[in-house]
Amino acid sequence: MLTESLEDYLEAIKILTLDKKITRVKEISELLNVKSSSVVNALNILRKNGYIKQEKYGYIELTSLGNKEATKILRKHKVLTKFLVRILKVSEKVAENDACKIEHVISEEIFKKILKLLNDLK
């Protein structure tokens, strides 16, 4: 099972690889505002568990398992941000920050209800 921190790393890799297929430690470090050593430690765990591929000191690439998980995490983040902004009328900045926290703990049942509510309002 992924920790909240590892989910954040997967999500960051997914965001960085949306335009290109691979990314680097430095880019992840900058996006998450963490030290490169923290990124390297997290990547080692993700690699050992089959979520990423990375040659020593090379590019980072999501595996199919990693891509599936990262896509799920990023989707939750986007839906929750949209919910907080549109329904609860909070600022984009607050919504982004809180969505990042909520995405790790929200039950699938509640997430599906939020998704349904947003779809019904379209």
Q: How would you describe what is shown here?
A:
66% of the residues lie in helices and 5% in strands. It is mainly alpha-helical and 122 residues long. A two-stranded antiparallel sheet has the order 1-2. Helix 1 packs across helix 2 (25-32), helix 1 (4-16) packs across helix 3 (36-48) and helix 4 packs across helix 5 (92-102). The protein is elongated, with a radius of gyration of 15 Å. The protein starts with a helix and ends with a helix. The mean pLDDT is 94.
Give, in order, the helices and strands: HHHEEHHH
State the major sheet: 2 strands, antiparallel
- Helical amount: 55-70%
Silhouette:
elongated
> What structural category characterises the helix and strand content?
mainly alpha
Distance between the terminal alpha carbons, to the nearest Å?
A: 35 Å
The chain-level mean pLDDT equals 94
Q: Provide the spatial order of strands within the biggest beta sheet.
A: 1-2
Strand content: under 5%
Spans of at least 5 consecutive residues with low confidence: none
Radius of gyration: 15 Å
Tell me the total number of β-strands.
2
Number of helices: 6
